[in-house]
Amino acid sequence: MSLLVVGTVAFDAIETPFGKTDKIVGGAASYIALAASYFHKDISLVSVVGDDFPQDFLNILKNKGTKLDGLQIKKGEKSFFWAGKYHNDLNSRDTLETQLNVLEKFDPIVPENAKQVDFLMLGNLVPAVQQKVISQMTKRPKLIVLDTMNFWMDIALDDLKTTLTMVDVLTINDSEARQLSGEYSLVKAAQKILKMGPSVLVIKKGEHGALLFNKEEVFFAPALPLEDVYDPTGAGDSFAGGFIGYLAKTKDVSFENMKRAIIFGSAMASFTVEKFGTERLIDLSANDIEERVQEFVDLVQFDISLV
Ligand code: AMP
Predict the structure, then answer these.
(1) What is the C-alpha separation between 10 and 27, in angstroms, rounded?
(2) Does the C-beta of 27 come closer than 6 Å to ligand 1?
């Protein structure tokens, strides 16, 4: 079952307590497509870059099975640029700079062969652009997953609320869930957000794992305690890529299967943070992923008797 990924393909400059990078390749859709490619090979990308973006990275995406017909390359323009600095605990960060550049006038065009996909992953992007993508689909996808961030809550909340009415699953982090709902308790926040449109909500809590809610149930996936964490950038997107890639692979969008999908998502995020940028996501093997998922299973498995 085919998967369409939409989001930024970008340059990032990152500062963490362990080092600093100049412009490196990033962008929500880059991480999503890379992470999803380990589960699913029929991926299309809709995004935009300037002619300053390295062809080498586009070749990597292509070689991993992502079709780039929906990627617009704007002559004489600059790619989206984001700079961020992480605090000492790596769970929170400040955005130092956001240069929209090509994103400012981005008009997404979904290629004909991607208008009937079963899975649509709307990565972090201008909410109005996310809507434009949905409106070009000629068949309602089986599952639409939306990711967003505080930046869009600050400057485009009304558009974001409209986008929320059009999707099935929302993935956001805990502070964004609090901002969107106005509730401190994540349980109350989830109740409110599930009334805004999505029937499933994933709240990502960085090194503290992720919560999966529908109206009746809640499920928790831990994050793996890792020895080496260098750069959390893209963890949320890698999570989303693993999540939707696994769902597309298994063709099952039940809540039970989403529980498994958030474990695969968490596994992909755990790889991303081990190196700066997208580096760690480029050369994984099926065995690496299997072993990592087993570590998650071992982490939470215990025998207990309630009598
Ligand atoms: P994450 O760490 O998973 O939240 O995502 C980090 C990625 O999001 C970076 O690679 C950035 O290029 C991208 N990004 C940062 N700000 C924005 C924004 N306002 N809109 C879209 N993508 C963004």
Answers:
(1) 4
(2) yes
CATH of the domain at 48: 3.40.1190.20
The stretch 272-291 carries a mean pLDDT of 96
In a domain, 22, yes or no: yes
For atom 20 of ligand 1, the residue with the nearest CA is 125
Domain presence at residue 207: yes
| Distance (Å) from CA 298 to ligand 1 centroid | 31
Number of domains in the chain: 1
> Over pLDDT 70: what percentage of the chain?
100
What global pTM score does this model have? 0.96
